[in-house]
Amino acid sequence: MTKRERVLAALSGAPVDRVPIAFWLHNFATENSAEGLAAETLRLAKTFDWDYLKPQSRAQCFAEMWGLRYAPSGDRALQYTVTRTPLADAADLAKLAPADPGTGALGEQLQALRAIRAAVGADTPIIWTIFSPAMVMPALIKGGREQALAFMRSAPAEMEHALGAVAETLARYATLCLEAGADGLFYATNMATRQQMSPAECRRFQRPYDLRVLRAVEGAPFNLLHVCGSDVLFDEFTDYPVTAFSWATVPGNPTLAEGQRKTGRAAVGGFPAKPDIASYTPEALAGRARRAIAEMAGRWLLLGPDCSINPDTPEPLLHAAGAAARAPV
């Protein structure tokens, strides 16, 4: 099978010659320009020959559209430092307006995507990262996640207005991503956990804005929903219009097989994320791959990490995981 044939078969539950595999990780030194992001993505693709690519856009790029500013670290494993957070109070939320996703930080991401697609050709599926509006808001608000959750409860109308402005922008950005060469989205949220939101709050402040973005690209062949964290509100997402789901298989979350049964869609996972992956041996990581393949009987599965992995993950680990995945099903 070609990479595209293999990935599309896995997404539909059809037989595959082997289970597709990919990893994703930040390089905080190279992700601050279109050229750097594209070059690092292509280096990793060449080194590991992954079946699909999830280029690791810098996490702050969405909030930059509304005034977040940062200082890059220059170190591949050391995160950026925020120098300006734009929103302070509910009145600021009420004034937030949609941004033009073809410009600024998001325009730069599109430039990187076009370069990556041109370099890898048509056969390698690419999923492009978009954070949910609920995940963008804490990066915009002084006080971060705690204050964003507080505004949901103390200023719900203002929060809904701000979420709508972000969702409108990201829905337009999603369509531009497909035009630039993406096969779909890696659509992520880290807010929908039982420690942070009730199911009712998830339905009010998460779901309507997610669906506005996802429905803009519903026909794409490879839209993935990533529900990040432990004790996630998994059942709130099972009917989302995506072709695959990604989540951490940790206590409080479904197993791969349980998640696939709940959604009827492909599961992406099988490997630990940062920081746990750094403690694995090559043999142990290969064992994780074999167990995931056995659990899913080689169907409805794309191997990947629970979330992004350490930037300095030793390359022999990833090569061992790739060798295990490439054993015939």
Summary of the model, kept short:
By secondary structure, the chain is of the alpha/beta class.
Question: Can you put this structure into words, describing what you see?
Answer:
This protein has about 325 residues and is an alpha/beta fold. The chain has a single domain, classed as Alpha-Beta Barrel (TIM Barrel). About 45% of the residues lie in helices and about 10% in strands. The protein is built from 13 helices and 8 strands. The protein has helices spanning about 5-10, 35-50, 60-65, 90-95, 105-120, 135-140, 145-155, 155-180, 200-205, 205-215, 255-265, 280-295, 315-325, and strands at about 70, 80-85, 125-130, 185-190, 225, 245, 265-270, 300-305. A 6-stranded parallel β-sheet has the order 3-4-5-6-7-8. A two-stranded antiparallel ribbon has the order 1-2. Strand 6, helix 11 (about 255-265) and strand 7 form a beta-alpha-beta unit. Helix 7 (about 145-155) packs across helix 8 and helix 12 (about 280-295) runs parallel beside helix 13. The mean pLDDT is about 95.
Q: What class would the helix/strand composition place it in?
A: alpha/beta
Number of helical regions:
13
* Strand count: 8
- Can you tell me the residue ranges where pLDDT is under 50 for at least 5 consecutive residues? none
How far the N terminus sits from the C terminus, by CA atoms, comes to: 13 Å
CATH domain class name? Alpha Beta
Radius of gyration: 19 Å
Mean pLDDT: 97
Query: And the CATH topology?
Result: TIM Barrel
Order of helices and strands: HHHEEHHEHHHEHHEEHEHEH
Helix content estimate: 40-55%
